[in-house]
Amino acid sequence: MECDSAVRVVGAAGGVGSPRIGSRYEVHWKIGSAPVGGIIEVVEFDEAGDLAWVSITGVNLRGRFRLRDAGPDGTRVTFRLSYQAPGGLLGLIADRIAGRQVGRVLQQSLCERARHGGAVKCGFRCFAPPKMPIPDPGFPLQLVHHDDVAAAIALAATTDAPPGAYNIAGDGEVSISEVVTALGGHPVRVPAVAATAALTVIAHMPFVPSGLEWLHVARASVVMDTSKAKSQLGWKPTYTSAETLQALAEAV
Length: 252
Known about the structure:
alpha+beta; two-stranded parallel sheet
């Protein structure tokens, strides 16, 4: 993710300390209501306008702030952040949800800081990464809405349903291509037999690259039988898998 912010400052802003190469800090990026982060180490520092870091603990990430004179518009602040996502479908979801949340919080923090220092204008824009192809081996998926999950938990805690495991999922199915398209990705159909063969090879590797985690979808059908939850727990989903996908796409 790369974000640009044009900030025009009148007067001097407060200092933020004296970092140097090798300095370490504990940082947290706020994603929704959850702080995500860890220890970072400064790897490049120029007091005139460059600060770069890498993570030591927590989420695997690299980041950079770059300040440049923008003439009458004030100072242009470029923020770059790269982080490790699970890859494939899960990575796409992480990019859509986490990336936008981090961008919004960065905008609020940067503009509030600029106004505190005497800013008279604060403009902000983000550039999303290019769409990456997400393979679809043709296996159907089920989704479940968080409201339906909460309802199932409430029933399990307040009724006399027999103990045990209950499968819960929205009625109906969606394809990986439908999920990827709804989240702004680029689906690519691949033969299921090729995905299964690739998974067999990857399963014997000592280290599985994160970008290949999507292949586990081809291991077996992920469509579950929810009849036990409906008959014994008294649970019934309010949202279908398609409606859950639509709600997710609208939320991000």
